[in-house]
Amino acid sequence: MYPDLPLAIAILNGYPKASRERFDAADVGHPHDMYARFVRSYVPRATLDVLFIADLDSALPTGANLRSYDAYIWTGSDLTIYHTDDPRVTRQVELARAIYEAGVPCYGSCWGIQMAAYAAGGEVRKNPKGREWGIARRITRTEAGRAHPLLRGKPDVYDGFIMHLDEVVTLPPGATLLATNEHTPVQALEVKHKNGVFWATQYHPEYNFYEMARLIRARAEPLVKEGFFATTADVQTYAEAMFALHEHPDDPALRERFAVGPDILDPLYREAELRNWFDYLVIPSRRR
Length: 288
Known about the structure:
Helix content: 25-40%
């Protein structure tokens, strides 16, 4: 924790306005709020700006203004990064490339890892295995990941919160694969490109069981359509059990129901990537 450090952090929300409005209507938490809660607890004096970068009428930092921030955090998004005819996407890719050029550290989850790879020359496609949702199982540190500071303090095998359809399929030059699992081979990576460094995960260290339950509840119809549940009522029952586990993380029956342990229940382990990013990338970069 850095109680006296006045960092300037930009949180880049990749969701378009219509999607954010659907979040509000469905009582789903906004990812920028989740990141902001973490940053305010870990770096209380940080100045936080939330930029809605999918909105075509929103101004984006450019030129020297890119360096007015000490770091950038990329949230998830429901856009598709390889839709190159969508200006809501292309403006974000251009921004990522400009940040790489400016040399300001980035962290991102979900859409963030896809952006880290794609903007540096990697490839993203729809995952042929379908949606990975709720809990990503048996995320495994690679040999490089066991030595990398992003995953310091993580077990060699752990679970994480997740909800996505696309995946990184080709790493760009300058990328290092840090974690993988059976469903999605690229679960965590570092990308060094131009003057910048981007640490990213496909899974969501910023989530907890409460926030994931809200998201699952709101995604009831696609989860039923894709065959994960028989009815939307079943989704609701599942979400309610997640809410209960959030309230009672030591309940042995609930832990057994979801087959989870401290790696995803305890913030000490679950949020390690976020603390490590500040400790080993953002703070050292600022001091140079």
